[in-house]
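Reference record
================
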Amino acid sequence: MKFGITQSFSCSYLPDEQEQLLVYAENNDFQAWRYSQLIQVGFRRSGEQIYRPHCPACKACKSVRIPVNAYTPSRSQKRLLKANQGFRVQLVSETKSTYYPLYERYITERHADGSMYPPSRTQFDNFVLCDWMTTHYLEAYDGDKLIAVAVTDVVDANEHMGALSALYTFFDPDYSSASLGTWMILMQIEEAKRLGHHYVYLGYYVEGCQKMSYKHKFLPFEQFSDNEWHLFSKNSKIPT
């Protein structure tokens, strides 16, 4: 396999650090299959690009995944599941015109201080869409109203490693009290179980970044470091 290393640039999670990426540099008919392998060793997808942090001076980013058959919701998560049980979810594989306006409003109202602001349709498409695999979306509705979308890759690695990979979630800011970010992860866990998959990948936990702390709230979880996955349960000392 061929890889390339990007130049250093300012880290979007740790402002005092510089970031580099290790990028998969091949383009062939087996791209989706290769991605299903690479995600098991800490890689992610952003648009067409398959990458992993490769920062010489920092090891804060660690891939996190949830073994869905072992997962047990916490008491607060159980309350959230009960509170939101009137919402409806469905997994689809067609990009809809209703997604971008919801994404634009979400970024503008919730993340105007982040690297994805200001939003644009080109930015959205380049981030979400991919020619070598089908992008899936877990939609959430309150009645007929679209209130949240979780962009989700369906990764069929093999019968032991099939997974959903949570790429990004955006939601109606009017529903902030419904904790839709957390709830959509719970829905992806349920969807993975329904499809017979074993994991939900949550992307990178970044030590020292408060925005990423939620990824340690789904127990048990596995975290990739030193080239292997480490399991953390309620009885484990959770890494910070």
Observations:
- Helices lie at 31-38, 75-83, 99-110, 121-128, 180-195.
